[in-house]
Structure formats: structure tokens, C-alpha cells
Amino acid sequence: MSDLSGCQLCPRLAAHRETVKLQYPAYHCAPVAAFGAASARLLIVGLAPGLHGANASGRPFTGDASGDLLFTALHDHGFASQAQSRSSADGMQLIDCRITNAVKCLPPRNQPRASETNTCNPYLRAEIGDLPAGGVLLTLGGFAHRAVTRALGLRHAEYPFARAAAYDLDARRTLFSCYHPSRYNLNTGRITAASFTEVFGRIRELLR
Ligand code: URA
């Protein structure tokens, strides 16, 4: 596996990064690495960097509406030092928590191709491999959930995505899934701030 920082494995995504960089020279426009210690007992997996969020800041969920909901919930349950995450220089500390994405580069129209998701999957597999025994994996949305079951070598049909599902894995690890904290899911009522935050309450109980 090549180094994530200069990854060129997906030609379409590598070209898209360059195109976006021309339009927004101050943006990160490169693969976005996981945020948080590899030893953390909670690993959260999102979809892919957002154009004006992680792709701009260089840190998952930092600077967009999804991140507002995520970091508020993390802060409420003691997994983050701050409730707001605006830039990679904001002093945010994750506490026993790590955040990553199924696909590390900004995809056009927020839609990675299956081939790109598969090409990126070994990076995710390595991050999951760092999760200690007794740890929790949380997938945000069906896309991330499928990428995680693939990385774990599980049959997706036996571990389907569902709102607030929880599955026992090996080494006392637990796989949780919940809807993605996107503005769309919030605006359509699929999630509320309260229902989203509640998932982290359950995880906190497990990790206590
Ligand atoms: N920002 C990310 O880093 N990932 C998402 O899935 C959404 C926004």
C-alpha cells in the first residue's frame, strides 16, 4: 500500500483534487488522514471528505455541517475537548476517539465509485486493525457501513446497516451503525440532534 499522503491510486480522485486546488488554492485538497490516536477505543467511520469541510481543513468532519453535529455529540459524551471543530488549528483534542472516512479523498458530487471505495479499503482496514480489544467501531451511514464490513471481511447480509444497530465482533469489539449526521438527514428528519447524540450515550456506557 502506498503512502496515504501522496496517494495516486484512484486517477479520477487524484485529478479532482488538482482541479479543486486550482479553484481553492488555500484548501488541503489531498487525502485526509484519520484524526485521533490509533490506540483510541472508539473509531468512527464517515463517508469521504466534504468539499468545504475535511477537504478544506485536512481533518475529517472539520468545518462542515456534519461535523457540527458530530463534534457536539462527541463533546456531550466526553470524547472531544470542544463542541465545535472549525479548522485543524482549533486545538480540538479527541479523547479515546479516532475519526476517519471510508474514502480518504474528496469525490466528485460526494459520490465515490465502487472501484475507488475498494481501492481505498486497505487504508481503512489498517485503521480498524489498530482498534484495541474491547473497542467500538461506529459507522455513519450505509456507505461507511458497507466499507467497514468489507474491510473486516464480513458478509454484509449478516451485518446489515440499520439505524442504531449493534453487532458483536471478535476480540470483544462492537460494531455500531447509525445514520450519517448530514444536513440532508437532519433536514428531512431522518435524524435529530437528540437521536444522534443518544448513540454516543450507548457507546459511552459500553466503554465505561
Ligand atoms: N466530512 C467528512 O470528513 N466525512 C463525511 O462523511 C462528511 C463530512
Question: Would you give an account of this structure?
Answer:
This protein has helices spanning 11-23, 54-57, 65-76, 114-130, 142-152, 183-187, 193-207; strands spanning 42-46, 97-101, 136-140, 165-168, 174-178. With 208 residues, it is α/β, with parallel strands linked by helices. It has a single domain (11-207), classed as Uracil-DNA Glycosylase, subunit E (3-Layer(aba) Sandwich), CATH 3.40.470.10. The chain has a 5-stranded mixed β-sheet with strand order 2-1-3-5-4, with helices on both faces. Helix 3 packs across helix 7 (193-207) and helix 4 packs across helix 5 (142-152). 43% of the residues are buried. It binds uracil (URA). The site of uracil has 12 residues, from loops.
Q: How does the SSE layout of this entry go?
A:
Elements: H1 11-23, E1 42-46, H2 54-57, H3 65-76, E2 97-101, H4 114-130, E3 136-140, H5 142-152, E4 165-168, E5 174-178, H6 183-187, H7 193-207
Parallel strand pairs: 1-2, 1-3, 3-5
Antiparallel strand pairs: 4-5
Helix pairs in contact: 3-7, 4-5
This protein binds uracil.
CATH class: Alpha Beta
**CATH fold label:** Uracil-DNA Glycosylase, subunit E
Radius of gyration equals: 16 Å
Q: What's the total number of strands? A: 5
Helix content: 25-40%
Structural class by SSE content? alpha/beta
For the termini, the CA-CA separation is 35 Å
Largest sheet: 5 strands, mixed
CATH-scheme architecture:
3-Layer(aba) Sandwich
Strand line-up of the largest beta sheet = 2-1-3-5-4
- Taking pLDDT < 50 over at least 5 consecutive residues as the criterion, the unreliable ranges are none
CATH superfamily: Uracil-DNA glycosylase-like domain
Strand content: 5-15%
Distinct ligand kinds:
uracil
Average pLDDT over all residues: 97
- What is the count of helical runs? 7
**Number of structural units classed as domains:** 1
Write the H/E string, N to C: HEHHEHEHEEHH
* Gross geometry: globular
